[in-house]
Specification:
heterodimer, A: alpha/beta, twelve-stranded mixed sheet, 12 strands, 41% helix, B: mainly alpha, MetI-like fold, 2 domains, 77% helix, globular
């Protein structure tokens, strides 16, 4: 038992030392709540932290949770006592609900520099990147991919697809809204038609995409930019994303300043920095999304052109109907 | 002392529920009128019952074979292998099972090569059961084996003298000795499978077989309706509670007659038929558990080993994992020992087992969220992420320690209580002289199990994650999230290897040398 205790204390000391070292530096600490993949070694986090700390005379403390939705849940649980200054990683499906909590302050930024496929009027949140949901397929296994959403649903194809659950995954919710916007009241019927082609509905994008790469199904619900990763990082050209004439559902990722932020000035400085090339340059090849403002050297050539049509349901409408739409989906999928 | 621990457990569960209810008004009508919810309750119960029956039913012949064959090459290795499935994060196990049974998995390729193309069978109830048996059968086999090993030597001598056959041995000796652990292990597996989330969703093929935990997740996430999550968690608690109550009588350890405590040969070891049967059972079990583990190893070795093993973040995650799991293990073992060893007239042993099981009967997600709010209300600092994870893991580990240690403790008590009382040995000296030497091995096994479980756990940390605190399971998700499937495969291999090392080291240090 003594050995275990000694080992435990040793480990505590190992972890405690760097923490103590950081707090001894005595710079203001900007706390940014975000999702895990943003702060991982492969995400934008490390580069963003380095670049901002070089000019702000401060330290960034990234706190990463599971994803954008959990981010909002955690904020609501913490309420006004949260120590967060900035929240980065909510998306357009959540902004209405996030604003309704009253936990956010207007950003007060000039956003004319934004380069988005839609007009941006939100007073509380500032976009930092965007992407489109799409079906990604393996060209070595699928010779005749569906040419449109209608073809996918009713074209008689038999190849299986992998999708995510809208209750636990952002792309999963994206597909639900995509189908809702294209088919409206016929959505439930479309889901019933689609059901035999769905191999499985996974908890998160990680599982669905992992199963796809393992060859379980030739098609997966992901982003239009997914093939770019394989081309740039792995030099593999076998993956492709569809470009449906019905349009693709748009996801805009945003950040906001909290009303109770301990460092509101610094927080706004961070949001301004977010739209600068120093931040935006990092986005394409770490977050694998389109930058929301200008980058210093344009987009990597592997990035596909934007879809002809952007679909998006206003945030307020999503907030109002999401529960009913998910219940409709559950009923169609679990009969 | 046991009363204090029991009250603390009840306080934590009750407090978590209460604060969840306190966050918003409750809409009971919406829950009662939800037809999908009724569907989920029914299907989750069926799924968990089947998983528990299959896991324990298959573990029984495996445990008997292991008990009968005490010396064969690879026995220790097999037992170690059995410690692995439970520590695998769900996503690692899902990928391993898909590699084996998936649409383009080994089994399908083997069958296609032999000209017998297999249909799709993984996604649906089949896949869920395959995964749940993989997770739980090995653990059940180990607990049942411990039960069989505690059969006193006299019984075997008597059985030999009477010339009992295998079936008689089972009916007259083994079943009475195993009844309590059969019941409690089945109850435990039921609760674990009832709360299963990623497996039931991904391998279940869709929301049809999704568990109540998915509905709790939905309530906590999107809807931000903690009271709804609390009601669902209560429903889950009620269903598991009903099962525990039904098993309550069975769960009280069988009276043990004091024995000489020296192993005696069993009468049913000889015989060619039995030998072939046992060999067959053990080979099948080894393949069933070993092949998915092999899939993890192969995928890991094929990945970018150098990149992952050379990264500081990997080793930082290892250190964090060791610190958290050590703290969780200390908490779980200390709590369980206080429950088991303390004497309290208010708490009969069955009730102790019941209360000790509650942490698993409660939704881990709801418990996590509840504890988080509870600690906030109590004024705890917000960045206690790691401490909270350790507490939750310790809490969830307690039932496992109870399962493993309680039977041995009951036996020790029935053997030595009177002698100890007449000699006036109590308190610390009793622990040092009597309980520790006798309980050392089960405590070693239990500590190893909790440490390994906590090492591979993701549940708590993804919700409360703080800066610089990635554990290995979280790192796997980060790598997958960044398209690095091959790096994730290496991390998964490292996780499984380290969990095995943690298991072996703790079992050896705490449990003492194997031949003691």
């Amino acid at each position: 038992m003594n050995k275990i205790l000694a080992r435990f204390l040793f480990c505590l000391a190992l972890i405690g030392a760097p923490v103590a070292a950081v707090s001894a530096a005595d710079l203001p600490v900007l706390t940014v709540y975000t999702y895990n993949s943003f702060v991982s070694d492969w995400g934008p986090g490390p580069q963003v932290k380095k670049a901002f700390e070089a000019e702000c005379g401060c330290k960034i403390d990234f706190v990463g949770v599971e994803d954008g939705v959990v981010l909002l849940s955690r904020l609501r649980l913490e309420g006004a006592s949260s120590k967060a200054d900035v929240v980065l990683g909510l998306d357009t499906n959540l902004t209405a609900e996030a604003a309704a909590t009253g936990l956010f302050a207007p950003h007060g930024l000039d956003v004319t520099a934004l380069k988005l496929p839609i007009e941006w009027k939100d007073q509380d949140f500032v976009p930092y990147d965007f992407g489109y949901f799409a079906f990604v397929w393996d060209t070595t296994r699928l010779k005749n991919p569906p040419k449109s959403l209608a073809d996918l649903v009713g074209g008689g194809g038999t190849e299986k697809i992998l999708i995510e659950d809208p209750r636990s995954s952002t792309p999963g919710l994206g597909l639900l809204l995509w189908i809702k916007q294209v088919y409206g009241d016929r959505a439930a019927e479309v889901w019933r038609q689609l059901r035999p082609r769905i191999l499985t509905v996974s908890k998160s994008w990680d599982e669905a995409y992992g199963l796809f790469l393992k060859g379980e199904a030739p098609m997966v619900l992901s982003y239009t930019t997914s093939p770019a990763y394989h081309i740039i990082a792995e030099k593999k050209t076998q993956y492709a994303a569809d470009n449906f004439p019905e349009g693709h559902y748009l996801q805009v990722e945003v950040a906001g300043v909290l009303a109770h932020a301990p460092h509101p000035e610094l927080a706004r400085k961070f949001l301004t920095f977010m739209l600068s090339t120093k931040f935006q340059d990092v986005i394409p090849e770490t977050n694998w999304m389109y930058p929301a403002a200008a980058t210093s050297s344009g987009l990597p050539s592997a990035f596909p052109p934007l879809p002809a049509k952007s679909l998006i349901i206003p945030s307020e409408e999503v907030a109002k109907n999401r529960k009913a739409w998910i219940d409709e989906w559950l009923a169609a999928m679990s009969q | 002392m046991p009363l204090a621990v029991a009250l603390l457990l009840l306080f934590v569960i009750g407090g978590s529920l209460a604060v969840l209810f306190g966050t918003a008004p409750l809409d009971l009508g919406a829950i009662a009128g939800d037809s999908y919810l009724r569907h989920v309750l029914l299907f989750t119960t069926i799924q968990a019952l089947l998983s528990a029956l299959l896991s324990v039913g298959l573990a029984l012949p495996v445990a008997r074979a292991l008990a009968r064959r005490t010396h064969f090459p690879g026995r220790t290795l097999l037992l170690r292998l059995f410690g692995l499935p439970m520590v695998m994060p769900a996503i690692v196990a899902v990928f391993a099972i898909v590699t084996l049974y998936g649409e383009s998995g080994w089994l399908h390729r083997l069958a296609a090569g032999a000209g017998l193309p297999l249909g799709s069978f993984l996604y649906g109830l089949g896949g869920i059961l395959i995964a749940h048996v993989f997770f739980n059968m090995p653990f059940a086999a180990r607990t049942l084996l411990a039960g069989l090993e505690s059969v006193p030597g006299e019984s075997w001598r008597l059985a030999s003298q009477l010339g009992m056959r295998s079936a008689q041995v089972f009916r007259l000796i083994e079943f009475p000795a195993l009844r309590a652990s059969l019941a409690s292990t089945a109850g435990l597996v039921f609760m674990l499978c009832f709360a299963s989330f990623a497996v039931t969703l991904t391998l279940g093929g869709g929301p049809r077989w999704a568990s109540l935990e998915a509905a709790i997740y939905e309530a906590l996430r999107f809807d931000f309706d903690p009271p709804r999550a609390a009601v669902l968690a209560l429903l889950q608690l009620a269903i598991s509670g009903c099962l525990l109550l039904a098993l309550y009588r069975l769960m009280a350890p069988a009276p043990v007659s004091p024995g000489i405590g020296r192993p005696q040969p069993r009468p049913d070891v000889a015989g060619r038929g039995g030998m072939i049967w046992d060999a067959g059972v053990l080979i099948l079990a080894a393949l069933y558990v070993g092949l998915p583990v092999l899939a993890v190893v192969i995928a890991g070795l094929a990945g970018s080993l150098g990149l992952v093993l050379g990264a500081w973040s990997t080793w930082h995650a290892v250190l964090v994992g060791i610190a958290v799991s050590t703290a969780a293990t200390l908490l779980a073992v200390a709590g369980a020992l206080m429950l088991i060893l303390g004497r309290s007239r208010l708490l009969p042993r069955g009730l102790v087992a019941f209360i000790g099981s509650l942490p698993l009967a409660f939704s881990p997600l709801a418990l996590g969220a509840g504890l988080f709010v509870l600690l906030l209300r109590l004024g705890a600092p917000l960045d206690l992420g790691l401490g909270l994870v350790a507490v939750i893991n310790g809490f969830m580990g307690l039932p496992f320690v109870l399962r493993v240690v309680a039977p041995a403790a009951a036996e020790a008590a029935s053997r030595h209580d009177r002698l100890a009382a007449s000699l006036g040995i109590a308190g610390w000296s009793r622990w040092r002289l009597i309980d520790w030497p006798l309980l050392r091995r089960p405590i070693g096994l239990a500590s190893a199990l909790v440490a390994a479980l906590s090492f591979g756990d993701l549940g708590a940390i993804s919700l409360f994650g703080t800066s610089n605190t990635a554990t290995l399971p979280l790192l796997i998700y980060q790598q997958l999230g960044a398209y690095r499937l091959d790096a994730a495969a290496v991390t998964a291999l490292l996780l499984v290897a380290l969990a095995l090392a943690v298991f072996v080291v703790i079992e050896r240090i705490v449990g003492g040398p194997a031949d003691a």
